[in-house]
Amino acid sequence: MKEWFNKIPVEEMISWRRHIHENPELSYKEYNTAAFVEEKLRSFGNIEIVKPTETSVLGILRGAKEGKTILLRADMDALPMQEESDVPFKSKVEGVAHTCGHDIHTAMLLATAKVLSELKDSLHGTVKFIFQHAEELNPGGSQSIIDSGVINDIDAAVGLHIIPNLECGSIHVRPVGAATTAADGFFLNIQGKGSHGSMPQNGIDPIIVGTQIINQLQTVISRYTTPGELAVITVGEFKAGDAPNIIPDKAYMSASIRTINDETREKVEKRVKEIIDNTCKTYGATYDLDYQRAYAAVINDKTVSELVMDSAREVLGESMVKEAPLTSASEDFSNYRQIAPICFVQLGGGTAADGCGFANHHPKFNIKEESMISGVKTEVQTVLNFLK
């Protein structure tokens, strides 16, 4: 047992989590949450406060001696959905809920900051705690924090995410390479020419155009990406027409696209655009395409990931630390790789047997709060080992 274990403010951390959970705020509107975080950081002492944006907070803890700089990140925004869990600290805000766990991330990072603030005299280097806004909404809050310049001196960045259906308090890390996928997509309006169904020769059928595009898109993954490499195209919307005997004049579709490396991401985007353009020209239709790039894949650095895993083993034991599989989720934590090597960590929040069987973004999302202690232990020990 480490001497600093008894410095972890477990009861306070749980109360912070519950306060934030009851008072969720959407992306770019985290004013009260940011004010709450700032108040707590100031109360710990030894921590400088910087506001990179209106609704984000950066705490800076400078150790007694010079050394490297590490960034720990927690996101703070909630989701636009109604909570359906039966916890006594349920969201008080209609249609807004912390069903992804950002309240948990924030509370854990506050607890980590409190512990480390009390260890200031033994630190060789600097710890930056970024409480980030707007992870849930493209383009994401991380880029504006990077653009502010306040963290451009960091040597590594670590982000931690709670995941239900993993053993309570366990740590899961992708040792190297893609830990998540890039999340892109498109929104397409196809303009054809309406006609009566009995006179198809007078129209340009956007339904035919759309179905041909969808069929062609299936070849992008099977013929333009490396076999075995994760890549997905999902057309989730296709809308056209409202009568059985009328050829409509327009159709609409939208799609989600997932890839894990920059080269494939570029190839897929290029090919998707070619298919849409060529197919519309073939049938005489025109189109309006909004192709959106969202978050790049999170690429874990081998050295930082090994440090995190070794640190977690040191405080939790060998059996509680596992290699994580690649997940097809996406995260704007990926942007921090622009300035330093990164590691994205998954924290087990409890399994279905613990009553935690609902995934992130589910209206009944919930976790076992004791799992948060493992998160704080891992974050603190990672900092101590990195700054040795």
TrEMBL record:
Pfam families: M20_dimer, Peptidase_M20. Transmembrane segments: none annotated. Residues 185-282 form the Peptidase M20 dimerisation domain. It comes from the Bacteria. InterPro entries: Amidohydrolase, Bact_exopeptidase_dim_dom, Peptidase_M20, Peptidase_M20_dimer. PANTHER family: METALLOPEPTIDASE, PUTATIVE (AFU_ORTHOLOGUE AFUA_6G09600)-RELATED, PEPTIDASE M20 FAMILY MEMBER. This is Amidohydrolase. It comes from Clostridium gallinarum. The lineage of its organism: Bacteria, Bacillati, Bacillota, Clostridia, Eubacteriales.
